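User: Hi! I'm a student and our assignment asks us to look at how structure tokens line up with a sequence. Could you show me two examples?

Assistant: Happy to help. In each example below, the sequence comes first and the structure tokens follow. Example one:
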Amino acid sequence: MKNRESSSKEPQSVKGYVLEAVEILVIAVAIAFGIRTFIAEARYIPSGSMLPTLKINDRLMVEKISFLFRTPERGDIVVFNPTDSLIQQNFHDAFIKRVIGTPGDTVEVRDGKVIVNGEPLVENYLLEPPTLNSPPVKIPPNEYMVMGDNRNSSYDSRFWGFVPRDRIIGKAAFRFWPLNCIGEIKDCPSK
């Protein structure tokens, strides 16, 4: 009788462990999905348009919380889903660029300088000054002008227009790769 009782309890305990493992897995997946959807997500840099600040294959965390409480500001590095214009050009992956103009600003590029509301923008993060001039444009409500830090090799708002606020996913907050550049987003020395 003892053998029969212990053997009948054993499958119950194995079944209990399996159910507990499945429950833990479901909870972990739900938490991971919730974090990625609402709090933060990892991204990698596929191009050189943000040089020297971000290099090809850098890995970073994009946080999604701060823009729930404030609007993007000039200088923020943002990740955003393609605009309608970009989708028409068959772009489907997210972009990463720096906010240059906010709603209501007038922005132009002239003689190697970005001019916002009549004042030259101080940009100590550029790879080199822009060589292409752009006429003054006024940014509509709830839209943003973005540019890459590598102005002469960046497909950005100067070519395809503004980014609607609802397309902005979040702000680049923390670089976790390469190891010699772990930390806040800023220019990282070459290896």
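Example two works the same way, sequence first and then tokens:
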Amino acid sequence: MLRSYYQKELLEAGCDEAGRGCLAGPVFAAAVILPLHFEHPLLNDSKQVMEKDRYELRAFIEANALAFAVASVTNKEIDRINILKASIRAMHLALKKLSLSPELILVDGNRFTSYKKIPHHCIIKGDAIFNSIAAASILAKTYRDDHMLQLHQKYPHYGWDQNKGYGTAFHREAILKHGQCRHHRISFKLKQRFDEQGQLFSLSEK
């Protein structure tokens, strides 16, 4: 059972990102402000939710949240400033787009940069603890998946309809065969990430 809130006095926004460990595509982030007693039996960390259920949850979250917003940072920006800074920037952009101003920010993970001097708490695996962070993880994941499905139409040989840009064996083999495209993260130096057997190192999959 997820917790409905961290505290009751301040208006909380949960934040999470999707796509941090990918080889291609943007990183997406969402910020969500929920009513105190929001609940849905399927709500959880997006990695623990079936794909079809994520979209059911997205519709429910968007219909019942007090405020929500989704933002992204391109692979070019990721290459320029690094993936950690890009992930935090995407969260800041999502927070900026909220129709309500939060008084406390709950962030999944252990790294964040203060946003407008609003107090924040970094919570490791927070998307499996608090409703608002779990809801943000659902929105970030589904919006990013939709974006990668669109890119797949132009670049079908990378299998982004299945791997969404993560470093699966199929995706790594496609990079070896076809090279990188303009949506790959060049700073990850994919072509140089080989071990002694000549296989691309795997990055985390989500």
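Here is something you could point out in your write-up. Strands lie at 12-18, 27-33, 67-73, 104-108, 120-123.
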